[in-house]
Amino acid sequence: MTVYRFSLIVNKKRLNKKYCLLGIHSPEIAAEVKPGQFINLQIPTGSNDLILKRPFSIHKVDSYRGIVYILFKIVGKGTRILSESQPGTTLEVLGPLGNGFTLIKNQSALLIGGGIGTAPLYQLATSLSQLQNKITLLLGLTDDEDLVLAKVMNEFVPKWILMKGNQKERQGPVTDLVREELASSHFDQIYACGPKPMLKSLQKMLGDMVRNTQFSMEEKMGCGLGLCFSCTCKIKDKKEAGKWNYERICIRGPVFKGEEVIFDE
């Protein structure tokens, strides 16, 4: 059930100059949220210059204390203001929103994160572990600053690779890691979240395995409720081969079957 609440920031941790971890007290959302869902937040500016709410994936949940955590990248005015907000600040929160991941049980799962697409994988990995799944986590990171994302996911023993940085021996796209892992291991389900180019490359590389893959799509959103149609993506028509439809990521997604997403050339 989606709820609209005024919720307090209860803790904040600035991980480095690029990333921030925020804890928000919202017991109703903490009790309902599923891995892969998101919330919409009103940036606390005190003015009307940032009217639209911002979508943030749920990083992890403390259901006992009623706290939901978001891990976000500081990329503009809104996220900068949010990163500077202190515990005790009140936020307008709407959630949980969207459709999350479909979970498996007693099987083997490969989780793939690209950059800040790593954020929702913590809650996913936690839930899959509780269901007795074997988890392999691969992270594609941009630079040395992104290594903090691997540290955040440390309890799941991630393997990571950088696109650029000081560690020359571990550079390249995350698909290099995926290819190596698939050559030596079998996975019943693959979960991926990251930028569209990464997901597009994965879809092409996986071949028939894409049928057992779930993609969490990243997109800018205007409302999070499906009213503005600003967050659409192309999805194959289930009834007519060769046809496709625009689907709203905030309503139908953000998680889709890997085989049904159509990426532009």
TrEMBL record:
CDD domains: DHOD_e_trans
Entry keywords, A to Z: 2Fe-2S, Electron transport, FAD, Flavoprotein, Iron, Iron-sulfur, Metal-binding, Transport
UniProt: [2Fe-2S] cluster binding residues: 223, 228, 231, 250
Key word Flavoprotein present: yes
Record InterPro entries: Cbr1-like_FAD-bd_dom (IPR008333), Cyt_c3_hydrogenase_gsu (IPR012165), Dihydroorotate_DH_ele_sf (IPR037117), Dihydroorotate_DH_Fe-S-bd (IPR019480), FAD-bd_FR_type (IPR017927), FNR_nucleotide-bd (IPR039261), OxRdtase_FAD/NAD-bd (IPR001433), PyrK_electron_transfer (IPR050353)
Top-level taxon of origin: Bacteria
Cofactor stoichiometry and binding remark: Binds 1 FAD per subunit.
Cofactors: [2Fe-2S] cluster; FAD
SUPFAM superfamilies noted in UniProt: Ferredoxin reductase-like, C-terminal NADP-linked domain (SSF52343), Riboflavin synthase domain-like (SSF63380)
Coiled coil: none
FAD-binding FR-type domain: residues covered: 2-103
Gene Ontology MF, one: oxidoreductase activity
Annotated PANTHER family: DIHYDROOROTATE DEHYDROGENASE B (NAD(+)), ELECTRON TRANSFER SUBUNIT, DIHYDROOROTATE DEHYDROGENASE B (NAD(+)), ELECTRON TRANSFER SUBUNIT-RELATED
Similarity comment: family membership: Belongs to the PyrK family.
Name assigned to this protein: FAD-binding FR-type domain-containing protein
